[in-house]
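Q: I have 226 residues here and want to know how they pack in 3D. Can you give me a structure?
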Amino acid sequence: MCEWLSTSESLTLQEELRALPLLAVLRPFHPLEAVPRIALLAAAGIRHVEIAWSPSRRWSHGCRELTLRFPAIRFGAASVRSPQALEATRQAGFSFAFSPVLDPSLMSCAQRLGINLVPGVLSPSEVHQAVALGCAAVKLFPASALGPGYWGSLSAALDPLPFCIAAGGLEVAHLDGWLQGGVNALALGSTLFDPLSAAAALPRLDPRLAGWVAAYASAPHHQRLH
């Protein structure tokens, strides 16, 4: 049921996240309002950006415009919980989406539309159900409520664990600790940016981010943390 397990598209995305295990999650009122932030992320080497779905009729059009402006960025939809949101994701030209919940009917809808939907999980039962449904990737949400050692603690009982993207309340300072704890990638939102520039027309990235990306990308493969 979950296309992450079998499609080359999904496997390619996982390999890309192994190369740099970080996704940015942006929640603009309108997608094009995120252009300054996406430009900063792209300059810092971030290549995966999620745009939170909105019921606005202009959401899909704005997202499609983002894909034209930033061809080096792989875009996906965030906060997807309905068939309407999945259809908008398809119209935006996005190939993947993230949901905060595990909903088999939503996953079936995503499969019909050709969208790789990463479901949200929290409990061991939800992880088990996601794997039983064929998902090779899940979103651990809200990760900040669990701690960086949580995912690794499931391995004895649920091995092999699916590819895991931790999300929810995480910061740049948490990247190494969570990767050492066993997750495969992290999704960060507003904490990617300097809080002092949050209301500014020209935001600034967290000053630690570019250094972390550069250090991770230059590290020998066997020394990377996932």
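Q: Anything worth noting?
A: Residues 3-8 have pLDDT under 50 and may be disordered. The chain has ten helices and nine strands.
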